[in-house]
Amino acid sequence: MMSLIGKKFKYINEGNAHIVLHVTETNYVIRIIKENGHTTNLDTISNSVNFVNLVMVPLIFGSYNHSHEVITLSSEDIDNLHIELKEIRPKHRQVKSVFSKFAIKAPNLVMITPNSVNYCLELKPKEGYLSETFKKASKCYYCLKQFLKMSENQIEHRSEYCPLDLFSGNKTRMKRALLSLLRNPQNNLKLFKNENIVYNENSDMKDFEDFIKNSLFDSVNMFLDFIIDILLSNGKSNLIVKESPVLSTKKPETCIEGTNLDSKSFLHKLLEVQKLSETLEIDTTEQIIENLEYVPILLNQIKQHNIDLTNERDRKRFLTIVEDKYLALISAVAKDCSIMISYSVAENDNVPCVKLGEQSIFYRVSVTDLEPKAAKTLVKRRKTEQLLLQIFEKKLKT
Ligand SMILES: [Zn+2]
Q1: Do 231 and 342 share a domain, yes or no?
Q2: Chain centroid offset of residue 168 CA
Q3: Which of 42, 96, 296, 376 is 20 to 30 Å from 198 by CA-CA measure?
Q4: What is the mean pLDDT of residues 101-113?
C-alpha cells in the first residue's frame, strides 16, 4: 500500500474519469479514479493498466517507455483527499466525488526536469485521416463533428482545425492546424508551465503571444516550428530547428489527406494505429453486451502467443491473431489520446535536445489517455457517423 499521508501533492488536471495529482518532489503522478454509481474492482484496473503498458504504449512508441502501476490508498488517504481537493477542484467536476481506493501511479508527463522551469504542450489531435464513411462528404470526422457541436450549442464557433492538416507531414499545413487550435482550442490544446495551465479554451490568443515571448521563443511562429519538428521526428533524436516564414493559408473547403509523413516519425506511428479500424468489417448491429470484458481476453492472447509489441514482427502477428472488434477498440483509443510535448532548458541527459539558434531545449514526447474504451464505443461511433452524414446532407440542401 502506498500512503499519501505526509506527502505534498499538487492538483494538475481533471477529466471525466480521473483526477491527476503530482506528488511533489517525485517524477510521478497519481491518477485518482472517480467512481460514481459503480465500484472499480482490482482486476478491471490492473487490466486497464496492463492494456496501456503492454498494448498501447508499445504499439505507438515501439518501446515500453512509460509504465503505469496500480496502487492502493488507505481510507485515511481518501478522507484527506476529499478535504484537500474540495477547495481546488472546479465546481462542475465535484458532482463526481466518490474516489476508488485503487489509483494509478504514472510518470509525470507535464514535467521533464524537476526543480527547473518546465513547459508542456498537450494536443488532442483526433482522427488524422479521411475515413471511408466520409469520402462522399470530403470532410473528416472532426470537421463534420464541429457542425454537430454547433447545432447542439456545445461550442460557439466552429474550429478551423483539421486533423488531416496536422497529420499531413506538410509543415505549412501543420502550422495552419496548430494556429487554428490556438485560436479555438476547445479541449484539443492546453499549455502548462510548471504544471499549471497557462493556455486553454478560456484564454486569449493575445495572452499567448505575450506568454511565448516571455518564455523561450522570439515569436509564436518560432514556437510552432519547434513543435512541428518534434512531431515530425521519431521522438528520440536531437534536432536543429530553423524558423520558417510565417505563412497564412486559408483552410480549404474539403479535408485532404497528406502523404508527406516519414514512416519513422512519431505522428506516422500514431496514425497507423488509428487506421487499424479502416480495413475491418465490424458488425455493430450484433449485440455488444461486453464493455471492458475484452481487455483480459486480449491480454491473455498476448501472453499465450508470447507477443512483444515493441517488436515489428510480433506487431504483424498480433494483427492477424486479434479479433477485428478488438483492433477497432485499440484504434478508438488512438483516435482519442493526447500527445504531451514537455520541454525545458535545464540540462537533462536522459532526453533528446533541440538546438534553436543559440539555445538548447530538452524535450520529451509522450502520450496519455490510453486507457481501454468500452465496447459500446463502437456502436456509439456508428450512430454518430450516421448523424454527421445527415447533418451534412441537410446543410448541402440549404
Ligand atoms: Zn477535416
Answers
A1: yes
A2: 18
A3: 96
A4: 93
CA of 189 to the centre of ligand 1 (A): 17
Mark whether 48 and 187 lie in a shared domain.
no
Q: Measure the CA–CA gap between 21 and 31, rounded to whole angstroms.
A: 6
Query: How many angstroms separate the alpha carbon of residue 331 from the centre of ligand 1?
Result: 18
Query: Is the same domain home to 345 and 283?
Result: yes
Tens digit of each residue's pLDDT (9 = 90 or more) over 170-208: 999 999 999 999 999 999 999 999 989 999 998 988 889
CA–centroid distance, 232 to ligand 1, in Å, is 20
CA of 273 relative to ligand 1 center, distance in Å: 19
**Per the domain annotation, does 112 fall within a domain?**
no
Is 258 inside any structural domain? yes
Q: Which domain holds residue 255?
A: 119-394
Determine the distance separating the centroid of ligand 1 and the alpha carbon of 253, expressed in angstroms.
9
Rounded alpha-carbon distances, angstroms, from residue 334 to 103, 128, 342: 23, 10, 20
Residue 83 resides in a domain: yes
Spatial separation of the C-alpha atoms in residues 201 and 88, rounded to whole Å = 19
Residue 320 neighbours by CB under 8 Å, 6+ apart: none
Kindly state the cell numbers that stand for 20: 491527476
| Ligand 1 centroid from CA 139, angstroms | 5
Highest mean pLDDT among 13-17, 64-68, 293-297: 293-297
For ligand 1, the distance from its centroid to the CA atom of residue 208, given in whole angstroms, is: 25
Segment 361-372, tens digit of pLDDT: 999 999 999 999
Residue 359, pLDDT above cutoff 90: yes
Residues 192 and 243 in one domain: yes
Distance 309 CA to ligand 1 centre (A): 31
